[in-house]
Amino acid sequence: MPVPLLDLRAQHATIRDDVVKAMMEVVDAQAFILGEPVAALEREVAALSHTRHAIGCASGTDALLLALRAIDTGPGDEVITTPFTFFATAGTIHNAGARPVFVDIDPATFNIAPAAVEAAIGPKTKAVIPVDLFGQMAPIEELLRVSKGLPVIEDAAQSIGARRQIDGEWRMAGEAATIGTFSFFPSKNLGGYGDGGMIVTQDDRVATRLSRLRVHGGLKTYFHDEVGYNSRLDALQAAVLRAKLPHLAGWSEARRRNASFYDEAFADVAEIRTPYVDPANESIYNQYTIRTDRRDALQAHLKERGIGTSIYYPLPLHQQPCFAYLGYQAGACPEAERAASEVISLPIYPELTRDQLEEVASTVRAFYGR
């Protein structure tokens, strides 16, 4: 039985009428840029994230770039981040004119290691960008502590709706950081029908700056306080996302149930290390990522049998050719490099049937002779 890594058609079948109705309301209104659909989504995401502000933009990548611009990042600055993440995290640092500084990860969670961040802070450090990888939050309270007042931009592209217990209280992804950023790329837990992004913050001044930067640097039409970007969230995308948002908690809970099924199915397979979730975290499992020494052979075995997989990520960012100018050598971030050679992600989407879960699990187990 073939099982894809992700099946958006299965999701669409359950919400089609609501989504089409929401989209047609925008089409009938013939108002496609920003407007009330975007403003309403911003209010709803701010409420979900427990933040004062949410600002829609064109993509998760733009969310990071606008956040960096909002804190005046530029040439001569350094921004500390993880090498084990999607390219946009470091690419936006470069495109803001700053220098990415890569530090290693916690091998258990794959998230950035606070001690490594603390050791890397120097006189040129402008900000820190942790990533909430695969759906669980980085230890934001520790990162804020070691950053000693520096802005912390939480790249929460994979973790909208995730939460973490801090001092006995649940804190949402994006809530505690200086700025939090989300992606609505279609494969995300809350995905649009194209690109889209959102930025959240508690800071009124930062929110105003972000709102200005996304519309060419001016809040008043044809008057520009600075040079900004064309990075507006389309009303059509906002309509789709608003139709989907009421389902997000249920989808994330289904992902957690699927993860528990896999955890149990692989418990007796010593060659597999299943995902570790920090006890303080509630993960939304954007990915279910295992580690194994025979990763490539396992992936080939699964492909032959129609099981979708992906490798997030096969080459850490500090080893990417475009960042050779930074001078990192092999071994600079050993945990990230080791993870890149061992990780493989399995289907985890909410609509997986029991038969599909059993097919994935039994196919993986068979590879190890179980």
From TrEMBL:
Q: Which residues carry this modification: N6-(pyridoxal phosphate)lysine?
A: 188
- Give the InterPro entries listed for this entry: DegT/StrS_aminotransferase, PyrdxlP-dep_Trfase, PyrdxlP-dep_Trfase_major, PyrdxlP-dep_Trfase_small
CDD domains, alphabetized? AHBA_syn
Q: Name one GO molecular function term.
A: pyridoxal phosphate binding
Q: Where is the active site?
A: 188
Q: Which GO terms describe its biological process?
A: polysaccharide biosynthetic process
Gene3D superfamilies, alphabetized: Aspartate Aminotransferase, domain 1, Type I PLP-dependent aspartate aminotransferase-like (Major domain)
Record keywords: Transferase included? yes
Keywords from UniProt, A to Z, are: Aminotransferase, Pyridoxal phosphate, Transferase
Membrane-spanning parts: none
Concerning PANTHER family, the annotation shows: 3-OXO-GLUCOSE-6-PHOSPHATE:GLUTAMATE AMINOTRANSFERASE, TRANSAMINASE
Family, according to the entry, reads as follows: Belongs to the DegT/DnrJ/EryC1 family.
The protein depicted here goes by the name DegT/DnrJ/EryC1/StrS aminotransferase
